[in-house]
Protein backbone atom coordinates (compact mmCIF):
# COMPACT_ATOMS: atom_id res chain seq x y z
CA UNK A 1 0.00 0.00 0.00
CA UNK A 2 2.78 2.34 1.03
CA UNK A 3 4.68 1.51 -2.15
CA UNK A 4 1.67 2.29 -4.31
CA UNK A 5 1.26 5.60 -2.54
CA UNK A 6 4.91 6.50 -3.11
CA UNK A 7 4.64 5.53 -6.78
CA UNK A 8 1.58 7.69 -7.16
CA UNK A 9 3.22 10.60 -5.42
CA UNK A 10 6.38 10.39 -7.51
CA UNK A 11 4.21 10.28 -10.62
CA UNK A 12 3.13 13.72 -9.48
CA UNK A 13 0.20 15.10 -11.42
CA UNK A 14 0.61 12.67 -14.29
CA UNK A 15 -2.88 12.46 -15.67
CA UNK A 16 -2.75 8.94 -17.00
CA UNK A 17 -1.62 7.66 -13.60
CA UNK A 18 -4.18 9.58 -11.60
CA UNK A 19 -7.11 8.53 -13.75
CA UNK A 20 -5.84 5.08 -14.60
CA UNK A 21 -6.55 5.34 -18.33
CA UNK A 22 -5.30 7.11 -21.40
CA UNK A 23 -7.22 10.30 -22.23
CA UNK A 24 -9.69 9.60 -25.03
CA UNK A 25 -12.46 11.45 -26.87
CA UNK A 26 -15.91 11.30 -25.32
CA UNK A 27 -17.17 9.47 -28.41
CA UNK A 28 -16.24 5.82 -27.93
CA UNK A 29 -16.61 5.26 -31.63
CA UNK A 30 -14.36 8.17 -32.61
CA UNK A 31 -12.37 7.44 -35.78
CA UNK A 32 -8.75 6.56 -35.26
CA UNK A 33 -7.58 9.91 -36.65
CA UNK A 34 -9.90 11.66 -34.18
CA UNK A 35 -8.58 9.61 -31.25
CA UNK A 36 -5.02 10.32 -32.39
CA UNK A 37 -5.75 14.03 -32.69
CA UNK A 38 -7.21 14.13 -29.20
CA UNK A 39 -4.25 12.31 -27.67
CA UNK A 40 -1.71 14.33 -29.65
CA UNK A 41 -3.31 17.59 -28.53
CA UNK A 42 -3.44 16.35 -24.97
CA UNK A 43 0.30 15.78 -24.99
CA UNK A 44 1.10 18.91 -26.95
CA UNK A 45 -0.78 21.20 -24.56
CA UNK A 46 1.77 20.31 -21.88
CA UNK A 47 4.62 21.47 -24.16
CA UNK A 48 3.39 24.73 -25.61
CA UNK A 49 0.52 26.55 -27.21
CA UNK A 50 -0.70 26.48 -30.80
CA UNK A 51 -1.76 29.66 -32.53
CA UNK A 52 -5.16 29.73 -34.20
CA UNK A 53 -6.85 32.34 -36.34
CA UNK A 54 -10.48 32.56 -37.38
CA UNK A 55 -11.19 32.60 -41.13
CA UNK A 56 -7.45 32.90 -41.73
CA UNK A 57 -7.71 30.88 -44.93
CA UNK A 58 -10.82 32.59 -46.26
CA UNK A 59 -9.99 36.31 -46.33
CA UNK A 60 -8.07 39.18 -44.72
CA UNK A 61 -8.95 42.84 -44.43
CA UNK A 62 -7.62 43.55 -47.95
CA UNK A 63 -8.19 40.27 -49.82
CA UNK A 64 -10.96 37.79 -50.41
CA UNK A 65 -10.44 34.10 -51.07
CA UNK A 66 -7.08 33.94 -52.81
CA UNK A 67 -5.47 30.58 -53.30
CA UNK A 68 -3.18 29.49 -50.43
CA UNK A 69 -3.30 32.98 -48.93
CA UNK A 70 -3.38 33.64 -45.19
CA UNK A 71 -2.80 36.81 -43.16
CA UNK A 72 -0.75 34.78 -40.70
CA UNK A 73 1.42 33.43 -43.51
CA UNK A 74 1.74 36.87 -45.14
CA UNK A 75 3.08 38.23 -41.87
CA UNK A 76 5.13 35.38 -40.38
CA UNK A 77 5.83 33.08 -43.31
CA UNK A 78 3.81 30.25 -41.77
CA UNK A 79 0.15 29.29 -41.49
CA UNK A 80 -1.52 29.18 -38.10
CA UNK A 81 -1.54 25.72 -36.50
CA UNK A 82 -5.29 26.00 -35.93
CA UNK A 83 -7.62 27.30 -38.60
CA UNK A 84 -11.04 28.54 -37.46
CA UNK A 85 -14.17 28.43 -39.65
CA UNK A 86 -17.72 29.68 -39.15
CA UNK A 87 -20.95 27.93 -40.20
CA UNK A 88 -23.66 30.48 -39.30
CA UNK A 89 -26.49 30.28 -41.91
CA UNK A 90 -25.56 26.78 -43.02
CA UNK A 91 -28.58 25.76 -40.96
CA UNK A 92 -30.79 27.80 -43.30
CA UNK A 93 -29.60 25.95 -46.36
CA UNK A 94 -27.76 29.04 -47.64
CA UNK A 95 -24.75 28.78 -49.91
CA UNK A 96 -22.86 31.47 -48.01
CA UNK A 97 -22.30 32.12 -44.33
CA UNK A 98 -23.47 35.13 -42.35
CA UNK A 99 -20.05 36.59 -43.24
CA UNK A 100 -20.71 35.95 -46.97
CA UNK A 101 -18.17 33.12 -47.17
CA UNK A 102 -19.04 30.26 -49.51
CA UNK A 103 -19.59 26.97 -47.68
CA UNK A 104 -18.06 25.08 -50.60
CA UNK A 105 -14.92 27.14 -50.22
CA UNK A 106 -14.93 26.58 -46.46
CA UNK A 107 -15.06 22.81 -47.03
CA UNK A 108 -12.23 23.08 -49.54
CA UNK A 109 -10.04 25.03 -47.09
CA UNK A 110 -10.82 22.66 -44.20
CA UNK A 111 -9.58 19.78 -46.33
CA UNK A 112 -6.51 21.75 -47.41
CA UNK A 113 -5.56 22.60 -43.84
CA UNK A 114 -6.07 19.00 -42.75
CA UNK A 115 -3.89 17.72 -45.58
CA UNK A 116 -1.12 20.05 -44.38
CA UNK A 117 -1.38 18.52 -40.90
CA UNK A 118 -3.18 21.47 -39.29
CA UNK A 119 -6.00 21.55 -36.74
CA UNK A 120 -9.53 22.68 -37.60
CA UNK A 121 -12.05 24.36 -35.32
CA UNK A 122 -15.60 25.30 -36.28
CA UNK A 123 -17.98 27.80 -34.67
CA UNK A 124 -21.68 28.25 -35.39
CA UNK A 125 -23.54 31.54 -34.94
CA UNK A 126 -26.91 29.92 -35.61
CA UNK A 127 -29.90 32.18 -36.20
CA UNK A 128 -32.46 32.56 -33.45
CA UNK A 129 -34.88 29.71 -34.24
CA UNK A 130 -37.84 31.48 -32.67
CA UNK A 131 -37.55 35.11 -33.70
CA UNK A 132 -36.05 34.70 -37.14
CA UNK A 133 -39.61 34.04 -38.27
CA UNK A 134 -40.99 36.94 -36.27
CA UNK A 135 -40.84 40.31 -38.03
CA UNK A 136 -41.98 42.05 -34.82
CA UNK A 137 -38.87 40.99 -32.91
CA UNK A 138 -37.96 43.64 -30.32
CA UNK A 139 -34.30 44.07 -31.11
CA UNK A 140 -34.85 44.97 -34.73
CA UNK A 141 -31.23 45.34 -35.72
CA UNK A 142 -30.36 41.95 -34.32
CA UNK A 143 -33.76 40.51 -35.21
CA UNK A 144 -33.60 36.80 -35.89
CA UNK A 145 -29.83 36.45 -35.64
CA UNK A 146 -27.72 34.60 -33.07
CA UNK A 147 -27.56 37.89 -31.15
CA UNK A 148 -31.34 38.26 -30.86
CA UNK A 149 -32.04 37.74 -27.15
CA UNK A 150 -35.51 39.25 -27.18
CA UNK A 151 -37.19 35.97 -26.18
CA UNK A 152 -36.25 33.51 -23.47
CA UNK A 153 -38.13 30.73 -25.23
CA UNK A 154 -35.75 30.14 -28.14
CA UNK A 155 -33.94 27.12 -26.66
CA UNK A 156 -37.15 25.59 -25.31
CA UNK A 157 -38.71 25.93 -28.75
CA UNK A 158 -36.19 23.60 -30.38
CA UNK A 159 -35.92 20.95 -27.67
CA UNK A 160 -38.12 17.84 -28.01
CA UNK A 161 -41.74 18.93 -27.61
CA UNK A 162 -40.99 22.52 -28.69
CA UNK A 163 -42.73 24.07 -31.66
CA UNK A 164 -39.48 24.42 -33.64
CA UNK A 165 -38.11 21.00 -32.83
CA UNK A 166 -38.52 19.58 -36.33
CA UNK A 167 -36.95 22.68 -37.80
CA UNK A 168 -33.96 22.24 -35.50
CA UNK A 169 -33.61 18.63 -36.64
CA UNK A 170 -33.50 19.92 -40.20
CA UNK A 171 -30.75 22.35 -39.15
CA UNK A 172 -28.74 19.51 -37.68
CA UNK A 173 -29.34 17.45 -40.83
CA UNK A 174 -27.76 20.26 -42.85
CA UNK A 175 -24.79 20.44 -40.52
CA UNK A 176 -24.42 16.66 -40.71
CA UNK A 177 -24.44 16.72 -44.50
CA UNK A 178 -21.67 19.31 -44.47
CA UNK A 179 -19.64 17.41 -41.87
CA UNK A 180 -19.99 14.13 -43.75
CA UNK A 181 -18.47 15.65 -46.85
CA UNK A 182 -15.30 16.63 -45.02
CA UNK A 183 -13.11 13.79 -46.22
CA UNK A 184 -9.48 13.44 -47.19
CA UNK A 185 -8.25 12.11 -50.56
CA UNK A 186 -8.66 8.53 -49.41
CA UNK A 187 -12.22 9.09 -48.23
CA UNK A 188 -11.43 9.13 -44.49
CA UNK A 189 -13.39 11.68 -42.42
CA UNK A 190 -11.50 14.84 -41.43
CA UNK A 191 -11.49 15.30 -37.62
CA UNK A 192 -12.32 18.74 -36.25
CA UNK A 193 -13.18 20.62 -33.06
CA UNK A 194 -16.79 21.84 -33.02
CA UNK A 195 -17.67 24.72 -30.69
CA UNK A 196 -21.40 25.44 -30.98
CA UNK A 197 -23.52 27.47 -28.50
CA UNK A 198 -20.40 29.35 -27.47
CA UNK A 199 -19.83 31.99 -24.79
CA UNK A 200 -22.62 30.60 -22.66
CA UNK A 201 -21.83 32.81 -19.65
CA UNK A 202 -22.53 35.94 -21.65
CA UNK A 203 -26.10 36.81 -22.39
CA UNK A 204 -25.65 38.13 -25.88
CA UNK A 205 -26.66 34.96 -27.75
CA UNK A 206 -30.05 33.25 -27.56
CA UNK A 207 -28.44 30.32 -25.69
CA UNK A 208 -26.82 32.63 -23.05
CA UNK A 209 -27.03 32.14 -19.27
CA UNK A 210 -29.80 34.66 -18.69
CA UNK A 211 -31.73 33.71 -21.81
CA UNK A 212 -32.31 30.03 -21.05
CA UNK A 213 -32.02 27.83 -17.97
CA UNK A 214 -28.86 25.83 -17.28
CA UNK A 215 -30.88 22.67 -17.76
CA UNK A 216 -32.15 23.83 -21.15
CA UNK A 217 -28.61 24.71 -22.21
CA UNK A 218 -27.32 21.33 -21.16
CA UNK A 219 -30.27 19.60 -22.88
CA UNK A 220 -29.56 21.55 -26.05
CA UNK A 221 -25.98 20.39 -26.05
CA UNK A 222 -26.85 16.79 -25.25
CA UNK A 223 -29.52 16.65 -27.90
CA UNK A 224 -27.16 18.11 -30.52
CA UNK A 225 -24.25 15.80 -29.75
CA UNK A 226 -26.43 12.71 -29.59
CA UNK A 227 -28.11 13.60 -32.86
CA UNK A 228 -24.82 14.03 -34.70
CA UNK A 229 -23.04 11.16 -32.96
CA UNK A 230 -25.74 8.49 -32.87
CA UNK A 231 -28.39 9.37 -35.41
CA UNK A 232 -25.96 10.72 -37.98
CA UNK A 233 -23.08 8.43 -37.01
CA UNK A 234 -20.50 11.19 -37.21
CA UNK A 235 -17.42 10.11 -35.33
CA UNK A 236 -14.88 12.70 -36.43
CA UNK A 237 -15.93 15.48 -34.04
CA UNK A 238 -14.32 16.72 -30.83
CA UNK A 239 -16.79 18.92 -28.95
CA UNK A 240 -15.65 22.10 -27.19
CA UNK A 241 -17.66 23.49 -24.28
CA UNK A 242 -17.21 27.25 -24.07
CA UNK A 243 -17.98 30.32 -22.00
CA UNK A 244 -17.19 33.99 -22.20
CA UNK A 245 -15.29 35.64 -19.33
CA UNK A 246 -16.03 34.03 -15.95
CA UNK A 247 -14.55 34.54 -12.50
CA UNK A 248 -15.23 31.19 -10.85
CA UNK A 249 -15.36 27.53 -11.72
CA UNK A 250 -18.94 27.39 -10.55
CA UNK A 251 -19.88 30.07 -13.04
CA UNK A 252 -17.87 28.33 -15.75
CA UNK A 253 -19.62 24.98 -15.29
CA UNK A 254 -23.20 26.29 -15.31
CA UNK A 255 -25.05 24.20 -17.87
CA UNK A 256 -22.09 21.87 -18.56
CA UNK A 257 -23.58 18.99 -20.55
CA UNK A 258 -21.33 16.25 -19.17
CA UNK A 259 -18.04 14.49 -19.77
CA UNK A 260 -19.73 11.98 -22.07
CA UNK A 261 -20.45 14.85 -24.50
CA UNK A 262 -17.44 17.13 -24.19
CA UNK A 263 -13.78 16.84 -25.23
CA UNK A 264 -12.46 20.32 -24.58
CA UNK A 265 -13.05 22.96 -21.92
CA UNK A 266 -12.55 26.31 -23.57
CA UNK A 267 -13.01 29.93 -22.67
CA UNK A 268 -13.21 33.19 -24.64
CA UNK A 269 -11.73 36.31 -23.07
CA UNK A 270 -10.89 39.57 -24.80
CA UNK A 271 -8.60 42.18 -23.31
CA UNK A 272 -10.77 45.13 -22.33
CA UNK A 273 -8.40 46.79 -19.90
CA UNK A 274 -5.65 46.54 -17.36
CA UNK A 275 -7.27 43.85 -15.26
CA UNK A 276 -7.21 41.39 -18.15
CA UNK A 277 -3.92 39.62 -17.33
CA UNK A 278 -5.02 38.78 -13.80
CA UNK A 279 -8.51 37.79 -14.86
CA UNK A 280 -7.20 35.54 -17.59
CA UNK A 281 -4.72 33.96 -15.23
CA UNK A 282 -7.46 33.29 -12.68
CA UNK A 283 -9.76 31.76 -15.29
CA UNK A 284 -7.11 29.63 -16.99
CA UNK A 285 -5.98 28.28 -13.64
CA UNK A 286 -9.38 26.78 -12.83
CA UNK A 287 -10.37 25.88 -16.39
CA UNK A 288 -7.15 23.95 -17.06
CA UNK A 289 -7.21 22.31 -13.63
CA UNK A 290 -10.75 21.13 -14.28
CA UNK A 291 -9.87 19.99 -17.80
CA UNK A 292 -6.95 17.91 -16.60
CA UNK A 293 -9.00 16.44 -13.76
CA UNK A 294 -11.52 15.29 -16.34
CA UNK A 295 -8.97 14.18 -18.97
CA UNK A 296 -10.14 16.92 -21.34
CA UNK A 297 -8.35 19.40 -23.57
CA UNK A 298 -8.31 23.11 -22.75
CA UNK A 299 -8.21 26.18 -24.99
CA UNK A 300 -8.40 29.95 -25.03
CA UNK A 301 -10.69 29.69 -28.01
CA UNK A 302 -11.10 33.44 -28.61
CA UNK A 303 -9.08 36.37 -27.45
CA UNK A 304 -8.06 39.77 -28.73
CA UNK A 305 -5.55 42.45 -27.92
CA UNK A 306 -6.12 45.60 -25.94
CA UNK A 307 -6.81 48.58 -28.14
CA UNK A 308 -3.68 50.62 -28.73
CA UNK A 309 -1.29 48.38 -26.80
CA UNK A 310 1.95 47.77 -28.70
CA UNK A 311 3.39 44.74 -26.93
CA UNK A 312 0.24 42.88 -25.95
CA UNK A 313 1.24 39.56 -27.54
CA UNK A 314 4.56 39.23 -25.78
CA UNK A 315 3.91 41.03 -22.53
CA UNK A 316 0.28 40.24 -21.71
CA UNK A 317 -0.90 37.14 -23.56
CA UNK A 318 2.21 34.98 -23.77
CA UNK A 319 3.33 35.14 -20.12
CA UNK A 320 -0.11 34.01 -18.94
CA UNK A 321 -0.92 31.29 -21.46
CA UNK A 322 2.59 29.83 -21.13
CA UNK A 323 1.88 28.92 -17.53
CA UNK A 324 -1.02 26.59 -18.21
CA UNK A 325 -1.70 23.49 -20.32
CA UNK A 326 -3.68 25.27 -23.02
CA UNK A 327 -3.95 23.60 -26.40
CA UNK A 328 -4.40 26.73 -28.48
CA UNK A 329 -5.14 30.41 -28.42
CA UNK A 330 -7.21 31.78 -31.29
CA UNK A 331 -7.71 35.36 -32.38
CA UNK A 332 -10.79 36.38 -34.31
CA UNK A 333 -11.25 37.19 -37.96
CA UNK A 334 -9.77 40.11 -39.86
CA UNK A 335 -12.96 41.48 -41.34
CA UNK A 336 -12.69 42.10 -45.07
CA UNK A 337 -13.25 45.74 -45.90
CA UNK A 338 -13.53 46.21 -49.63
CA UNK A 339 -13.03 49.96 -49.33
CA UNK A 340 -9.37 49.38 -48.41
CA UNK A 341 -7.07 49.73 -51.35
CA UNK A 342 -3.76 47.93 -51.67
CA UNK A 343 -1.93 51.08 -50.60
CA UNK A 344 -3.67 51.37 -47.23
CA UNK A 345 -0.76 50.80 -44.86
CA UNK A 346 -2.86 49.96 -41.82
CA UNK A 347 -4.86 47.31 -43.61
CA UNK A 348 -1.74 45.93 -45.25
CA UNK A 349 -0.32 45.10 -41.87
CA UNK A 350 -2.56 42.39 -40.52
CA UNK A 351 -0.75 42.02 -37.19
CA UNK A 352 1.28 44.36 -34.97
CA UNK A 353 5.10 43.95 -35.02
CA UNK A 354 4.95 42.37 -31.58
CA UNK A 355 3.12 39.38 -33.08
CA UNK A 356 6.56 38.26 -34.34
CA UNK A 357 7.76 37.96 -30.73
CA UNK A 358 4.84 35.65 -30.07
CA UNK A 359 5.60 33.74 -33.28
CA UNK A 360 9.30 33.42 -32.43
CA UNK A 361 8.73 32.20 -28.90
CA UNK A 362 9.76 28.55 -28.42
CA UNK A 363 6.52 28.07 -26.49
CA UNK A 364 4.23 28.83 -29.45
CA UNK A 365 3.45 26.50 -32.34
CA UNK A 366 2.48 27.48 -35.85
CA UNK A 367 1.80 25.03 -38.67
CA UNK A 368 5.38 24.00 -39.48
CA UNK A 369 6.05 23.14 -35.84
CA UNK A 370 3.04 20.89 -35.55
CA UNK A 371 3.56 19.24 -38.93
CA UNK A 372 6.46 17.41 -37.32
CA UNK A 373 4.11 16.12 -34.62
CA UNK A 374 1.92 14.15 -37.07
CA UNK A 375 -1.12 14.86 -34.95
CA UNK A 376 -3.36 12.39 -36.72
CA UNK A 377 -0.97 9.45 -36.53
CA UNK A 378 -0.84 6.99 -33.68
CA UNK A 379 1.59 8.02 -30.93
C1 LIG B 1 -18.56 37.82 -34.63
C2 LIG B 1 -18.31 39.03 -35.49
C3 LIG B 1 -19.37 39.02 -36.56
C4 LIG B 1 -19.38 37.69 -37.32
C5 LIG B 1 -19.42 36.52 -36.36
C6 LIG B 1 -19.28 35.19 -37.05
O1 LIG B 1 -17.83 37.81 -33.48
O2 LIG B 1 -17.02 38.97 -36.06
O3 LIG B 1 -19.15 40.08 -37.45
O4 LIG B 1 -20.47 37.63 -38.20
O5 LIG B 1 -18.41 36.65 -35.40
O6 LIG B 1 -18.06 35.07 -37.73
Walkthrough of the structure:
The chain contains 14 helices and nine strands. The chain has 379 residues and is an alpha/beta fold. It has one domain (9-371): TIM Barrel (Alpha-Beta Barrel), CATH 3.20.20. It is globular. The model is unreliable at 1-19 (pLDDT under 50). The site of beta-D-mannopyranose has 7 residues, from loops.
Structure at a glance:
Helix content is 36%, strand content 12%. The protein has helices spanning 2-10, 15-19, 32-47, 71-76, 103-115, 154-158, 165-180, 214-231, 249-252, 276-293, 312-321, 345-348, 355-360, 367-371, and strands spanning 49-54, 82-86, 119-124, 192-196, 237-243, 264-268, 297-303, 328-331, 364-365. α9 (249-252) links the parallel β5 and β6.
Question: How are the SSEs placed, and which strands pair?
Answer:
Layout: H1 2-10, H2 15-19, H3 32-47, E1 49-54, H4 71-76, E2 82-86, H5 103-115, E3 119-124, H6 154-158, H7 165-180, E4 192-196, H8 214-231, E5 237-243, H9 249-252, E6 264-268, H10 276-293, E7 297-303, H11 312-321, E8 328-331, H12 345-348, H13 355-360, E9 364-365, H14 367-371
Parallel strand pairs: 1-2, 1-8, 1-9, 2-3, 3-4, 4-5, 5-6, 6-7, 7-8
The structure holds beta-D-mannopyranose.
Amino acid sequence: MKLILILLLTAGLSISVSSGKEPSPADRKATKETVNLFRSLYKLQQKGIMYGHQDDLMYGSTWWHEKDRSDTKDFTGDYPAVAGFELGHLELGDERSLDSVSFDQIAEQIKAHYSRGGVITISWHANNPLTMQDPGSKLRRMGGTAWDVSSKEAVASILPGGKNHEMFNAWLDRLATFFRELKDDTGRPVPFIFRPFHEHSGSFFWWGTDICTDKQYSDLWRYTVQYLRHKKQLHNILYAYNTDKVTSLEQYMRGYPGDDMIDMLSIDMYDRGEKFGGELENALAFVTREAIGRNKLAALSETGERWGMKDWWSSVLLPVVSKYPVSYVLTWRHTYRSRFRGSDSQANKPFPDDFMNFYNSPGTFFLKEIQGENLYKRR
